[in-house]
């Protein structure tokens, strides 16, 4: 049902927005020389490029192995020194160091790379807006759970709506599920409703403060992916709402047939 919803959303998105030739923001950036047109060119493989890709893949495999080894299910490593998130940072920084040393790259060029600049801009956004939002939500998590619980007690069918707005504030599918799904089941919400409504926990895009969303805005040098002056009128809202709505509806339809 998720795949069907995503495919339908992709078709709908083809009719949203305007072409770059009609986008005033893009045309303004193009006139200022802030957008570089990429034409066809012969690709030249740089020395040690294959080695760097191999090292990067080794880093990914190492992260996956370590995360699996310290998981509660496998438990190969008891009482790990590094938690998963910190281990990812250590592994990838180590691989980056090895690539810099063994592949003989010019590290000064890293600072000028568009991906690096976009990533650092996104980091600043995360430490600012996203951190502020997370602080506010954590300070009022009990109130959020209480209001959601009362609403579900009176209207169990509103579970998808409750999960949608809770995920908007909690910035996490796991945190939203952990905070509200057990309470919903205790209040008598049917398994079909719980399963069909689960897709609503993906509403992390409503407030334009999620790290991935901010990174996407920063990486788009055309300026067509942007956050409007009214905050909520950003490029991700309509596609995201359409995808979640379709997924929930399809969940009820398919779940009603299967369950």
Automatic annotation (TrEMBL):
User: For this UniProt entry, which segments traverse the membrane?
Assistant: 53-75, 87-103, 115-133, 153-171, 183-210, 230-258
Catalytic activity field: (S)-malate(in) + succinate(out) = (S)-malate(out) + succinate(in); fumarate(in) + succinate(out) = fumarate(out) + succinate(in); fumarate(in) + L-aspartate(out) = fumarate(out) + L-aspartate(in); L-aspartate(in) + succinate(out) = L-aspartate(out) + succinate(in)
**Membrane topology classification:** Multi-pass membrane protein
InterPro entries attached here? Anaer_Dcu_memb_transpt
Superkingdom classification of source: Bacteria
Q: Name one Pfam family in it.
A: DcuA_DcuB
The protein's location, in the record's own words, is: Cell inner membrane
Instruction: Name one cellular component (GO) term.
Output: plasma membrane
Please state what the protein is called.
C4-dicarboxylate transporter DcuA
User: What's the source species for this entry?
Assistant: Raoultella terrigena (Klebsiella terrigena)
